[in-house]
């Protein structure tokens, strides 16, 4: 979930994100050109995207990188 500056939360399809910028508010631009200004930091948004990608196995297997090399 992502939070707009007005406090309303919403779900965003992470597969449609083209770029994330901070000016200083975090702005997410989608591939269709639509922009969202959100309360979360750029780093928080990136972490959520990576977590989502891992959960759908788009970026490695879930749990990879969570364990140290043995």
Walkthrough of the structure:
This protein is of the alpha+beta class and 70 residues long. The chain has one domain (2-55). The chain is 20% helix and 27% strand. It contains one helix and five strands. The chain has one helix at residues 42-55, and strands at 2-3, 9-10, 17-22, 26-30, 35-38. A three-stranded antiparallel β-sheet has the order 3-4-5, covered by helices on one side. A two-stranded antiparallel sheet has the order 1-2. Strand 3 and strand 4 form a beta hairpin. The mean pLDDT is 88.
Question: Compute the gyration radius: what is it?
Answer: 14 Å
Q: What is the overall shape?
A: globular
Strand order of the largest sheet: 3-4-5
Element order: H for helix, E for strand: EEEEEH
- Number of helical regions: 1
SSE blueprint and pairings:
Layout: E1 2-3, E2 9-10, E3 17-22, E4 26-30, E5 35-38, H1 42-55
Give a nutshell description of this structure.
The chain is of the alpha+beta class and 70 residues long.
Write a concise keyword list for the protein shown above.
single chain; 70 residues; alpha+beta; three-stranded antiparallel β-sheet; two-stranded antiparallel sheet; 5 strands; 20% helix; 27% strand
């Amino acid at each position: 979930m992502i939070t707009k500056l007005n406090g309303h939360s919403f779900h965003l399809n992470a597969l449609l994100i083209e770029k994330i910028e901070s000016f200083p508010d975090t702005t997410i631009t989608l591939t269709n050109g639509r922009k969202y200004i959100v309360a979360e930091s750029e780093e928080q948004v990136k972490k959520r995207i990576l977590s989502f990608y891992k959960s759908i196995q788009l970026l490695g297997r879930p749990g990879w990188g969570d364990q140290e090399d043995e």
